[in-house]
Every structure is written in structure tokens, then in C-alpha cells.
């Protein structure tokens, strides 16, 4: 199958095509992160050309986007995760610094085309784009797709789980590692999402009558509810990988 790559915003695209590509895959609560909301508008406007799409004919079958930031190549200097990557990209922009690192923050494969290797092709295109722009480093805060099956397991343990062939048990982490990426570190608080209890009830479809910890649908960790303070707080764990 021969696919082409271009910036997603290179031309107008039928909304139905984009709706099909981006249908599903994300829990509702992920769209209610106030820290993300503070930065995302500016980030998406400034770095729109870093969003790439794979096309099969004129049908978008995968898309992913990145931000440029400064990183010294050492684990302690990694952003704390997704939100901090947004902030670091804006900080580099505001300081007039020259970013040396591409942080790939999201990837999506068309629901009908998952499991067919398109994700690796998309990541390859994003890595090639980084190289063309002179950015020698590509990192990703990976959202492991099967972590929601093990919400009680610390991310540090989960990222270390391997199959007998030595590859990660998690399928999405496995795709990265099979391409030659290295697991660098856990990002246990990649996003911290906070909301009123009623909001969490609506985002998760669960009643949350007591204070305490809850396993929530598609949550990679648990939700902590404090009824007296009327808050629920969820920390989204990711795994930092670095591509070659
Ligand atoms: C994460 C995502 C981009 C990966 O794309 P993908 O096309 O599934 O990736 P791959 O083709 O490399 O598949 C990875 C593994 O999962 C398996 N897999 C994925 N989807 C599958 C499906 N629907 N049926 C069977 N196997 C599937 C593949 O066989 C492969 O396993 P293998 O290593 O044993 O071969 C895609 O699942 C997606 O868009 N998810 C929703 C959004 C998301 O979570 N993005 C990631 C966070 S940024």
C-alpha cells in the first residue's frame, strides 16, 4: 500500500473524513484538563505545520502532531509529561531559543485501520520531519494503550513488563520500541486533571457517592474523590521514549 504524507492543514479536508479518523480512542475526561486548555490554542496555532497526516488516496488514515522544545538529552531535564511539553514549547518560542527536540504529543490511526502498522509509518514521518527541521532528538510521552487494564499498577512497573521476546507487553509501547526507540523514564503525572465531583460523574458515567479512590473507564490510573472538597483528581501516567 502506498501512502503519502503531508501537513494536515496543507489543504481543506472534508469534515466527515476528519471525524472518521478522530472517532474514538480518547476518554472524555482527557478533554477537560485545565492546564492543557491554558496552552493548547496557542500551541496548535504556532506549530500547526508540525501536524502530519498519512493519506491513502485522499482518505486520511493516520495523523500525529509534535511541538518543538529545548531539552539537554538527559532524563532529569525531560518535561514532566504532556502538559509540561506544551509549556516548554511556548517558553522556547517566547525566549527566542532554537529548539533542538521534537516532542511527538499525539498520534491517531483511523479506527478501521488500527493494528496494520500505520502507526510506525506515521512515527517515521514525524521523525523525518524533525530531522528535516534540524532537530536531532525526538521524544514522546507515550499513552500506553493497555494501561487502562491495569489502573492499580504503578507506571514504573507497567513500563518494565516485557514479553518472552523482550519487547514491551503494551502494544503501543511495543510499536515504538520495535522501531528502535528507547524507554527513558516514567511520567507519572503527565497530565493532572481536576474537576468537581458532578463533572467527573458526567465524564466517567459513574456515580461517585463516597470519598476515596475509584477505577474509572479508560483511566490509566485511579481517580481520587474528595466529597467534602467537591473535587476529583486524576493523574495520567505516560512513558517517555526517545526515538533514534
Ligand atoms: C495508539 C495507536 C496510534 C496505535 O496504532 P495501531 O495502528 O494500533 O499500531 P500498530 O499497528 O503498531 O499496532 C500495535 C500493536 O497493537 C495490535 N493492535 C492494535 N490494534 C489492533 C486491533 N484493532 N486488532 C488487533 N490488534 C491490534 C497490533 O497487532 C500490534 O501488535 P503487535 O506488536 O503484536 O504486532 C492507535 O491504537 C490509536 O489511534 N489509538 C487511539 C488514540 C491513542 O491512544 N493514541 C496514542 C496516544 S498518543
Automatic annotation (TrEMBL):
What does the record give under GO molecular function?
acyltransferase activity, transferring groups other than amino-acyl groups
Q: Which InterPro entries does the UniProt entry name for this protein?
A: Acyl_CoA_acyltransferase (IPR016181), GNAT_dom (IPR000182)
Coiled-coil ranges from the UniProt annotation: none
* Domain N-acetyltransferase positions: 8-190
Q: What is this protein called?
A: N-acetyltransferase domain-containing protein
Which organism's genome codes for this protein? Catellatospora methionotrophica
